[in-house]
Amino acid sequence: MNLPEWLLRHRITVEPYAGDTAHGPTYGPPVEDVPALVDWKVRVVRAPDGRETTSTATVYAGPDLAAQCPPESRITLPDGRITRVIAVAPHTAPGLPVPESTEVACE
Q1: Which pLDDT belongs to residue 93?
Q2: Judging by beta carbons within 10 Å of its beta carbon (0-12, 13-18, 19+), is residue 11 exposed, middle or buried?
Q3: Which of 5, 10, 66, 98 could form a cystine bridge with 90, CB 3.0-4.6 A?
Q4: What is the pLDDT of residues 25-49, one digit of tens each?
Q5: Which phi-psi region, left, alpha or beta, contains residue 28 (left: φ > 0; alpha: ψ -120 to 50)?
Q6: Rounded Cα gap, residues 76 and 13, in angstroms
Q7: How far apart are CA 17 and CA 68, in angstroms?
Q8: Source organism's superkingdom (predicted)?
Q9: pLDDT score at 22
Q10: What is the 3-state secondary structure (H, E, C) of 7-74?
């Protein structure tokens, strides 16, 4: 079971992180109009490398977003702000009647 579509009121654009080059980070083709729910709340999160950093927005979306949006990806939020992904957390509960989702902490 996935998050109900009626909860995903916002639309975001995801540019998946593809790696670093001599000219800086590179990104894959943008995935536009991704249904999501954006929570503009400032909080401290731990990045995959263990450092603590500040997140200014959290994106909740369907479980398929985890594969499309690795850390360091760029996300364009509904207000037009472009942000970087700090951490991605897929939420699953096999066998339980709860919705699966992906939580993305953004700079």
Answers
A1: 82
A2: middle
A3: 66
A4: 999 999 999 999 999 999 999 988 8
A5: beta
A6: 5
A7: 9
A8: Bacteria
A9: 93
A10: HCCEEEEEECEEEEECCEEEECCCEEEEEEEEECCCEEEECCCCCEEEECEEEEECCCHHHHCCCCCE
**Model pTM score:** 0.91
CATH number at 5-106? 2.40.10
**Position 87, amino acid:** A
Backbone CA torsion sign across 23, 44, 46, 13:
negative
How far apart CA 36 and CA 50 sit, in angstroms, is: 26
Low-confidence ranges of the chain (pLDDT < 70): none
Residue type (1 letter), 42: V
Contact 55, 38 (CB under 8 A): no
- The pairing of strands 17-21 and 24-27 is antiparallel
Structure tokens at 3: 């998050």
Tell me the sheet residues that pair with 100: 2
